[in-house]
Amino acid sequence: MSNSHDTSAPSKRVKHESPLNHYLSYIISILLTMLAFAVVLYGDLDRSFILIFIVSLAIVQAVIQLFFWMHAKERGHLFPLIFIGGGAIVALTGVITAVYWVWW
C-alpha cells in the first residue's frame, strides 16, 4: 500500500506578512494626506508648487498602497503590474495630449 503523502519533498512554507507592515503603510498614507491638507491650508505658497506637490504625494501614496495593500511586491503579480504600467502610460499620454491641445 502506498502512502499518499510524500514526506521526502521539501515543503513550501508560505511567508505571511506581519500586520506591522499594514499598520506602517496606513500611518504613512495618513501622514501624506495630512501633509497635503497642510500645504493647501497654509495658502501662502505658489499655486503651481502646491499642485505639483499634491500630485507627487498622490503618486507616492498610490505606490505605497500598491506594494503594501495590493501585495504587488509578491511573486506572481507581474502581469497586473504590466497592465497597471500600461494604463499609466496611456493615461499620461492622454493628459499630455490634452494639455498640448489646450495651450497650443
Radius of gyration computed on alpha carbons: 22 Å
Structural class: mainly alpha
Sheet having the most strands: none
Helix content: 55-70%
Mean pLDDT equals 82
Q: How many β-strand stretches?
A: 0
Percentage of residues in DSSP E strands? under 5%
Element-level helix/strand string: HHH
Straight-line distance between termini: 81 Å
Uncertain spans: none
Note the overall shape. Answer: flat
Count helical runs.
3
Short description:
With 104 residues, the chain is an all-alpha fold. 69% of the residues lie in helices and 0% in strands. Helix 1 runs antiparallel to helix 2 (47-68).
Notes on the structure:
This protein is mainly α. Helix content is 69%, strand content 0%. α1 packs antiparallel against α2. The protein is flat and about 60 Å long. The model has no long low-confidence stretch (mean pLDDT 82).
Task: List descriptors.
104 residues, mainly alpha, 0% strand, flat
Annotate the secondary structure layout.
Blueprint (H helix, E strand, L loop, with lengths): L18 H24 L4 H22 L9 H26 L1
